[in-house]
Amino acid sequence: MASLQLIEDHISCPICLNSLSDPATLPCGHNYCMECITKFWDKEGHPERCCCPQCLRTFHPRPELSKNIMLAEVAEELKKKGLLSQSPTHSCAGPEDVPCDCCLMDRKLKAVKSCLVCLASYCQTHLEPHMNVPALQWHELVDATLHIQQKICSIHNKVLDIYCEEDEECICYMCTRENHAGHDTISPMEARANKKDDVTETQNQFKKRIQKMESKLQEL
Predict the structure, then answer these.
(1) Is there a single domain that holds both residue 31 and residue 73?
(2) Half-sphere exposure of 3 (CA within 13 A, CB side)
(3) What radius of gyration, in Å, describes the C-alpha atoms of the chain?
(4) What distance lies between CA 97 and its chain's CA centroid?
(5) Where does the record place the RING-type domain (predicted)?
(6) Are the C-beta atoms of 93 and 144 separated by less than 8 Å?
(7) I need a surface site. Which of 68, 120, 136, 196 has the fewest CB within 10 A?
């Protein structure tokens, strides 16, 4: 099963995640469906320059693509034998999921991480450059979120990773030197825990008041 999964991964298009259709091999060695990579480059809007979506290697001028006949024959033979699935094995994004910003399919895949530098969300496949490309490895990744812009300071364009107790709002480290200088600060996680404790305490107080009122009603 492991070897079959490895074969399927190599005969699948990294863009649509389906089995390769009219496979084209880029100069860097990565393979894509002819239609998928063409649409990806057209979407980039650079007619004379393009890059590989996986390794981000840039090509100038844009390479002329041709069908990889050998790879196409291998993929077709595996399909006939029922060794390749005809549909993506990755889960598509549902109504409550965060969709991948790079998927070019009609139904985008579910994003697994959001990048606070790129301000974009990625499925497992399109997250690969952030794992392997040195220039992207320093980017801060968080769990996929629909409201990624709200995690960035609108003034300094930095991550909101500090909570100001005095002003009761999330700020970035640059804010601590300016408008919030000298204020008591804690981590957002600690602030969330404190707020949760406050809510629990308030709920307990209301329960006691309700119980007291019900007791008086019983007496009446």
Answers:
(1) yes
(2) 0
(3) 26
(4) 11
(5) 13-55
(6) no
(7) 196
User: Which residue in 184, 188, 122, 101 sits closest to 151, CA to CA?
Assistant: 188
Tell me if the pTM is above 0.70. Answer: no
Domain at 193, CATH number:
3.30.160.60
- Residue from 56, 58, 59 nearest 129 by CA: 56
What is the amino acid identity at position 141? L
Q: Which residue has the tokens 């650079």?
A: 46
Phi-psi region for residue 22, left (φ > 0), alpha (ψ -120 to 50) or beta? Answer: left
Whether the predicted pLDDT of 163 surpasses 70 = yes
pLDDT tens digits along 2-28: 444 445 556 778 887 777 888 899 999
The closest alpha carbon to 187, from 154, 159, 218, 149, belongs to 159
**For residue range 88-126, what is the model confidence (pLDDT) as tens digits?**
445 677 777 888 888 766 667 888 888 888 888 888 878
Rama region for 29: left / alpha / beta (φ>0; ψ in -120 to 50; rest): left
100 and 35 within one domain: no
Residue 98, domain member (yes or no)? yes
Mean pLDDT of 165-169: 89
Where does the pLDDT of residue 78 fall: very low under 50, low under 70, confident under 90, or very high at 90 and above? confident
Residues facing residue 172 across a β-bridge = none
Give the integer Cα–Cα distance in Å for 49 and 166. 51
Give a yes or no: residue 85 inside a domain: no
Q: 207 lies in which domain range?
A: 153-220
- Structural contact between residues 78 and 84, judged by C-beta atoms closer than 8 angstroms: yes
